Amino acid sequence: MKTRARLPRLIATGATLALALSLSACGDGNGGASADDGKIHILVYGDATNKIEKQVVDKFNETSDVKAVLDTIPGADYQQKLQTIISTPQAPDVFFNWGGGSIKPFVKADLLLPLDDFIKKNPELESKFLPSVFNNAVVDGKPYGIPMRGTQPVLLFHNKNVLKKAGVQPPKTWDDLLDAVEKLKDEGVTPIALGGGDVWPTQMWFQYLYDRIAGPELFQKALDGDKSAWEAPESKKALKMIRELVDAGAFGKNYDSVKYTNGGSVALVAQGKAGFELMGSWYYSQQLTDHPDFAEKGLGYSAFPTVAGGKGDPKNVAGNTNNYYSVLKKTKHPEAVAKFLELMYTDEFVKSQLDVGNLTTTTNTDEFIETSATPEYSRFQYDLVANAPSFQLSWDQAYPQSAASNMHKAIQQFFNGQLDADGFIKAMQALPTE
Amino acid sequence: MTTKITSAPPAAGLRKEPRRRPAASPSVSTVGRPGFAWALPAAVFFTLFAIVPLVMVAVLSFMSWNGLGSPQWVGTDNWSRLWDDPVMLKSVWLTLLLTALGVVIQTPLSILLGVWAAGYQRNRAVLSVIYFIPLLLSATAVSVLWRALLDPNFGIPAEASWLFGDGNLFGEQATAIGVLAFVSTWQFTPFHTLIYQGAARSIPQVLYQAAEIDGAGRYRQFFHITLPQLRNSMITSMILMIVGGLTTFETVLILTQGGPGTDTTISAYYMYDKAFKGFDFGAGSAIALALVVAATIISLVVVKVSGYDKMRSSMEGVS
User: Where do the segments described as Disordered lie (chain B) (predicted)?
Assistant: First the structure.
């Protein structure tokens, strides 16, 4: 009986609205819990890394008069829930985010505190972090976030055995990749596994190719509101190359039915049914969980290939730069918050993050990398990120959240041929940029 | 096969009424009913959780709100944007198509299964219980299950490529809609089977006995006794299917996310997409309100056309 679903949905909508309205009503009166209880509330995405955030809070509370409280929101709905509470009295003082477009609407709504003053008092709050990472939480020229977890660059992973059998080396250039695609096809395997059902894995191909061909400036221009950027010749060239790759059968035919999130594409590579997969650095731990034997013996990785004649620096990377702590303007304890943020680059913090496999992006990370759970892999990533002139934040996170859904649709439709290049360009131009 | 007339108990129950309240007239329509106070709890909850949100949604559909700050009045902006939105139009057609597919596929299946399950043989009772299981699972679990079962490389399509080809079920519109219709059928047919099973069991056996005496075979009995007697249940079940079809959501959310592209974006999912992914609560509310109005109109039309509102007894010609 499908009618079941209707009532709960109405209730949910009603409750959200009632909540929002009643909260805003009592807001100016007696003030909320977080405003007056003499503590700073820190809101974090709930997952396994929370134990480190808990340690940091405990350590902070040992010395500070103003105590910190760690609140977590578990699950994938973090951004939706954050957006619901952030303009209410229940809003936290400090909160976890992805930088870029995930905080831009909050900046526009004048909810966030620019961190200029903190940095003026303690320049280490900026200088202790890798610039390419720190810059992704800069909005309209002002810094709004301090990196607080690990970086997750996107790498080209491969199955060593499959590549060896086909006589293929990890590709250094785009032509190498096209060549590898043909050889792998001859072997009867899908050259590149792709979880097209999730769409964001498909997007990774777009963001890397655009960066290689046009450099990060073109995307930045589009993000700043100049929609003509999408019509640039570099944009058209990138689209043409994606089209060629898809038409060459690099991803097989059924990629839109495959998902990364249910382990489908992961298993394709692990079982030798596919050669490559382009994925964030968390791929290693995913393989380690799903297919431990393969992860230790057969999983290889390399940087995204270079593109001859491209304007982008071949050392650029793309992916999730890091997560950030941002501060609400209305916090009652800015000094305590500043002290708390200074803990994000201590040696102890870096070591405990490396212990659980998170690669921090502080300048002192270099010294401790050998203590990481996977030293070789961490070293590769760190050098990649530290040497990258630019770190392209994933497109759907660089744009405001409200654009992500339509962006994904356009990407999927271009990839499977429902949209041509002009259709894709129009769809991208229609996205909101603020 | 028992020969007992199963309709006896309810009739007796009705006859008791006048005895308890001697003042009332013996006619059924004037039998005393509980006062309004009895309806109060339900009325309060319905007002609080259905009417009030509905009014709020109606108000919000004339505002622009991204969840931050205060909503702004924008007049009929949301509505005119929706009117011109090709995806919205497409979503309406997709919703109607999926609803129609649901009714067309599930109704014959559940009538046959229900009538079959109405027999009192023990094996039928056992099998009916097994058939009922999909309904006990949450729509979310069912959708996750089928997404995994239909994985092109490791699921059923990989083993049966003669039927599924390259297995790109979620990558093309026709097959994606097929999957949605199939999964809904798999999950909700048991419920409608249950309705028909109950209805088939309450058909008086005397009708079949008379037919047998007159020399009517099994098929004639089915088409001339069973089907006409199931008429009211059929309408009930179809209204549930239509309303359910119009508000289908979880299945799409988990199986296809409205994709490929917007090819399975039905109206209810488009509402979610606008409101909770695009943070455009105004447009989302407009779609929600349009859905409520559309579902109400369609239900009313079905009720009128089918004569359900006249509540004719399915027992005519019996007592």
Answer: 1-30
